[in-house]
Write a structure and sequence with these properties.
Elements: H1 2-6, H2 20-29, H3 51-75, H4 85-88, H5 95-108, H6 112-145
């Protein structure tokens, strides 16, 4: 998903969040977890390049920040000492950022065709995340069987 995420939609003026991948990589490398011996190959993004499509992808990524805050509040104590860096997001509440994002999305994705394109971007982003999760599960099962 790197392509559409790196190229922000036109009109997206909200502050760039702290990069996602370094936070996830730091969480996975934390001493509180068993070591991961194999990385997944980078996913090849086959998505479209329109601004509306990128808004749909951005919706999924921004939504993960909002959901991450909820998960952090519910899981931080139970999963201690794991730091959950990605979910914590440096303690910055995602609500105001989400509201700003939604205002920008509504202002820039208008009309049936643009809305359909944004919805396709969101669906493709979710499908890519699900495929990555399945690949990670398959890789873990292969390592366990070896």
């Amino acid at each position: 998903m790197a392509g559409p995420v790196r190229r922000r939609p036109a009109g997206c003026r909200i502050a760039r969040p702290r990069p996602h991948l370094p936070l996830i990589e730091a969480d996975l490398a934390d001493a509180s977890l068993p070591p991961v011996d194999a990385a997944l190959p980078p996913a090849q993004w086959q998505g479209r390049d329109s601004a509306a499509y990128r808004w749909g992808v951005a919706y999924v990524i921004e939504g993960s920040r909002l959901g991450g805050a909820v998960l952090y509040r519910r899981l931080a104590e139970r999963l201690a000492p794991h730091p959950l860096r990605y979910l914590h997001n440096d303690g910055v509440p995602p609500g105001p950022r989400w509201q700003q994002f939604m205002r920008a999305l509504r202002a820039h994705v208008q009309g049936q065709a643009a809305i359909a394109e944004a919805c396709q971007g969101a669906r493709d982003a979710f499908d890519s995340l699900i495929a990555l999760r399945r690949a990670a599960g398959d890789a873990a099962q292969s390592r366990a069987a070896a």
